[in-house]
Amino acid sequence: EKGYRDYGHDMDNTDRLLDCGLGFTCDFEKEGGFIGQKHVLAQKDAAKERGGLLKRIVNVLVLDPAPLLHHGEILWKDGRRISDIRAASYGHTVGGAVGLSMLTRDIPVKKDWLDGSDWEVEVGSRKHPCRLSIRPMYDPASVRVKDA
Predict the structure, then answer these.
(1) Closest CA to 130 of 74, 63, 36
(2) 105-134: b or e for each residue (b if 16 or more CB lie within 10 Å)?
(3) What average pLDDT score do residues 17-29 get?
(4) Which of 62, 51, 47, 52 is nearest to 132 (CA)?
(5) Which residues contact 76 (CB under 8 A, 6 or more apart)?
(6) Which tens digits make up the pLDDT trace of 46-88?
(7) Where are the domains of the chain?
(8) How far is 6 from 4, CA to CA, in rounded Å?
(9) Which residues pair with residue 121 across a beta bridge?
(10) Residue 84 and residue 73: Cα distance in Å, rounded?
């Protein structure tokens, strides 16, 4: 529900920091920089020139509360196989199965593409409508975490 990343499960050493939505963890003002800083800055500049990232980890919410996700389920958009679910659980506060998926395209992965048409996740042999978001499905501003 919160979209927290689990290294080795949701992401690994083949995924780039910004693609995983973890750019906020970088201190670009740190004296002496950090290992990989020039690569992160180059990716950031390239994304700015293109109008966004070509690869993004996104949150998935199955709209029907009955199906359960585990991982490996196929994500479909407009009848085309797009990606798979990397990690999943049941989101009790949002009322359905939730998961994370890494999307890759030739043009930037943006909110309007995620909102723009029919997404489905295949559980068993049935496809179920789902909603995708770059931001977490639950408490996207982390207000509850900060107030705790």
Answers:
(1) 63
(2) eeeebeeebbeeeebbbbbeeebbebebeb
(3) 93
(4) 62
(5) 82, 119, 120, 121, 122, 127
(6) 999 999 999 999 999 999 999 999 999 999 999 999 999 999 9
(7) 55-133
(8) 7
(9) 75, 128
(10) 5
Q: How does pLDDT run across 116-139, given as a tens digit for each residue? A: 779 999 999 999 999 999 998 887
pLDDT recorded at residue 148 = 60
How far apart, in whole angstroms, are the C-alpha atoms of residue 143 and residue 135? 13
Structure tokens at 53: 């990232």
Residue 8 contacts residue 20 (beta carbons within 8 Å):
no
Find, among 65, 71, 120, 67, the residue nearest to 93 by Cα: 65
What is the distance, to the nearest Å, from the Cα of residue 99 to the centroid of all Cα atoms in its chain?
A: 8
Q: How far apart are CA 94 and CA 91, in angstroms?
A: 5
Q: Which CATH number fits domain 55-133: 3.40.50.1580, 3.30.300.30, 2.20.28.120, 2.40.30.110?
A: 2.40.30.110
Q: In the numeric block, which tokens belong to residue 45?
A: 């500049």
Q: What would the two tokens of residue 8 be?
A: 């080795």
Q: Which amino acid is at 46?
A: A
